[in-house]
Amino acid sequence: MAALPFSTTSRHANTPLHSNSKSSFTGFSPRNSICRLFFITKSSSRRALRKLVVKNIASDKRQELNEPLTEQGNFDDFVPDSASIASSIKYHAEFTTSFSPEKFELSKAYLATAESVRDSLIINWNATYEYYERINVKQAYYMSMEYLQGRALLNAIGNLQLSGPCAEALRKLGQNLEDVANQEPDAALGNGGLGRLASCFLDSLATLNYPAWGYGLRYKYGLFKQLITKDGQEEVAESWLEMGNPWEIPRNDISYPVRFYGEVISGPNGTKQWTGGENIEAVAYDVPIPGYKTRTTINLRLWSTKVSPAEFDLQAFNNGDHAKAYAAMKNAEKICYVLYPGDESIEGKTLRLKQQYTLCSASLQDIVARFEKRSGNKVNWDTFPEKVVVQMNDTHPTLCIPELLRILMDVKGLSWEKAWDITKRTVAYTNHTVLPEALEKWSLTLLQDLLPRHVEIIRTIDEQFIHEIISEYGTDDLDLLQQKLRKMRILENIELPNSVLELINSLIPTIEDVKENDVKDNNDIKATEEKEEEDGNVEVEEKEQEDDVDDKSVGEDAIKKTEWTFKVDPNQPKMVRMANLCVVGGLSVNGVAEIHSEIVKGEVFDDFYKLWPEKFQNKTNGVTPRRWIRFCNPDLSKIITKWIGTDDWVTDLEKLVVLRKYADNEDLQLEWTEAKKRNKVRVASFLKEKTGYVVSPDAMFDVQVKRIHEYKRQLLNILGIVYRYKKMKELSAKERKERFVPRVCIFGGKAFATYVQAKRIVKFITDVGATVNHDPEIGDLLKVVFVPDYNVSVAEVLIPGSELSQHISTAGMEASGTSNMKFAMNGCVLIGTLDGANVEIREEVGEDNFFLFGARAHEIAGLRKERAEGKFVPDPRFEEVKAYVRSGVFGPYNYDELMGSLEGNEGYGRADYFLVGKDFPSYLESQEAVDQAYLDQKRWTRMSILNTAGSYKFSSDRTIREYAGDIWKIEPVVLA
Predict the structure, then answer these.
(1) pLDDT level of residue 279 (50, 70, 90 thresholds)
(2) Residue of 90, 630, 822, 882 marked active site
(3) Rounded distance, CA 542 to CA 532, Å?
(4) Sorted alphabetically, which InterPro entries does this protein's record hold (predicted)?
């Protein structure tokens, strides 16, 4: 065999990738017979590969080879054959696997294969960042509490174009690639669309050659693994790290201190020092993210938490006080145990806040260290925003703003003015929700206790921002001013700073004989003749002041001057509004769909938009076409490539538009239908394996898979199914078959562990399924299946086989959604409201190819007001279906609470806040239209093709280009 350019590496021999190390290519000597190097030339006719630096582990000798990997730097010039891959897998199976050597079983084959593929990623990965460091390029840093990656093996070999060689190599070793890949657990680093979007963005960043990193936390137990039992949803800890994670590289030499509690000490010249308290270490774990058909391989750095061994109290342990001995260790480690720990208790809230601060602090310390290293001997902090941009994915990383200020001022010695200017030009914010409870507010008391220095900084930001509000609106209209302060301040229900009171009072003109102004609103800035301080309340004060002006002009009468203060409500908590802090401290604020961005500007942050319209943008979400069609739906991908005439659509999704002109072509429709049928057969097999239910692939596959939440309205879907079932039961067998299209209704998604109503909905769905699926009169006409533990891998099976997908949230409440894009991309027809990205999907695929129902976003407030006034008249069918549920037909569980939430006009958990009853009749009518369309299979297939053709806009590649050009100001960097 010819000498090969890339070598396999021992897991423990990887050169650390960090700011103080120089990456190198490592591996066994080509002369070493134990292991063959990973990459080989395609054939003897290709240009000979130039040499590069290779580290010989046995002799530690370097061979200096100076040229690029190929003469042209063409990725296609390095495609390994199955023999070299098989040799690499065999090596890892013997030397780096965690399994005993007796047998080459599936689990062992997976780890050995993953280690082999990872070797090639490490080489490209090190080369990528060595080049970025050398040219000192501006980089984007994506900060997210979630990354819902899914399985990595098939995605990695797909991006490296090694699917064929890897499959052949495993066949030679007696294994099947698909079976091996199925051994990989999903990485439990996320839950829903927020985390899946972040992972799609990393894929696009790498594919488009943008210099970027991701930062997150390494959750040991994830959110939870969902079990479905007779009692509904049950939660157990995820076990994804039990057998190790071959894709991560522990960076034991990269760790940063993170502090909680303690006190702030003032030093000379106004300096501050945060000391004492609880100290932990955040340790880096790196995960390579490969691009498609490119050498660019970017990094996802995850933080794990620990304390030094010195914190283990050996004396306490030997004395038998074991809990005391390892208390510090457990306190540190539990920060990264669980994604979104329950926050009903103060301990849960504290743990969540610790998680968020750990992510922000460790990541920013790392970013600053990398900036300093690249800057060399002389660091010019004015250039920091020219080299660094931080994107906060939702409000969870909001503490990036005060933390960056703390580092710049307290650690690096910058002034407040300079640090604040740098921060405002560095950090950007993506808003993902219009739900008030998701915009995050933290108790000022909790923040003060846990992060005292940051509260000082936040107070300063708030004070400076109040001055900006006063400068903008003046003091002529004090009612307007107090309204702006009440809505826009970062601190909620907290007294105004003295500097603000002094400013307002200095701007109010002196007037004679001011009469008492008795304003009752607790939140108003008020004028009165008395000053009363009680329970933290501060009312206004009117004082008599001596005037030194000439008696001739004023006389002896005293002139009264009204002083204004801000009264807080002692019965309400003092809070810090994280979303407001994001807007004030960020260079940009963007929504994630056109309708969502308009709501952000017009409702959620309307006052901020009026103040800073230039800050606000829209960046409609997208999904990666690599994972979500090319790799998960190979049958359909081959058809698309055939009819378009190129596979370039995988990185240029706009080429899908070409399919529109073939939508009525009978040959394409036949191929399309056959591919969909094969995917449906796969889904049927999967459902039988996971749930035991047997379904017919000839029925329509109707799917709703997403996080279980009242606003996403799984309840509307299942009530529609119950109505359908009731009507079936009222007909004869012949009438049923004539009237109803056979359907398999599939649900999937997790209800948050403490979200009682969502868990009731899961229980209800499973109870309906248990009744309907065992009803011999109904048979294959209707099946209801809840798939347990929905995740990325499950989605990769369900989405290609789906025919109708439900995206039915209350209009105006879903920021975007991304599963709707995945379904449309795979030729699935959507039924939905005009909400989130549904609006844009409908525009692109055509109104005739989308089943629309329900109230519009601008109508929602009026409909809720109508309900509160007792004017809502429910449709008789809605009353009928609720009564049917209460009749006990679906078992003994008492559904009064669930049905009761849809009744009444007001009250917590009642009054149908999400308008299920209002939209129910429109939903039923739209479902009847679905049945009619499905009966005409030629029409349905045409609709399916046009959905795929119209999904071109919803590639995350397009979204990332917009972020890069409009917000981050970064350019693609192709490895030289």
Answers:
(1) very high
(2) 822
(3) 11
(4) Glycg_phsphrylas, Glyco_trans_35, Pyridoxal_P_attach_site
26-49 mean pLDDT: 35
Strands 26-27 and 54-56: parallel
Q: Is a pLDDT exceeding 90 seen at residue 39?
A: no
Contact 650, 292 (CB under 8 A): yes
Tokens for 93? 């199976």
User: Which residues on neighbouring strands pair with residue 575, listed in sequence order?
Assistant: 443, 492
Would you call 976 exposed, middle or buried from its count of C-beta atoms within 10 A (0-12, 13-18, 19+)?
exposed
Catalytic residue among 627, 712, 759, 864: 712
Is 706 an active-site residue?
yes
Q: What is the pLDDT of residue 103?
A: 81
775: Cβ–Cβ under 8 A, 6 or more apart, which residues?
A: none
Q: Which residue has the higher pLDDT, 12 or 234?
A: 234
Q: How many CB atoms lie within 10 A of CB 190?
A: 27
Question: Active site residue: 207, 423, 818, 948, which one?
Answer: 818
Roughly how many angstroms between the first and final C-alpha of the chain, as a whole number? 28
Dist. CA 703–CA 829, nearest whole Å: 10
Which is the catalytic residue, given 706, 713, 763, 953?
706
Judge whether 729 counts as a catalytic residue: no
Lowest-pLDDT range, 443-447, 520-524, 692-696?
520-524
Identify whether 737 is a catalytic site residue: no
627 in active site: no
DSSP alpha helix (H) spans, 208-345: 314-318, 322-325, 327-333
Model pLDDT for residues 654-702, shown as the tens digit of each residue:
999 999 999 999 999 999 999 999 999 999 999 999 999 999 999 999 9
Cα dist from 295 to 130, 262, 452, 539, 771, whole Å: 13, 46, 45, 65, 54
Specify whether 324 is catalytic: no
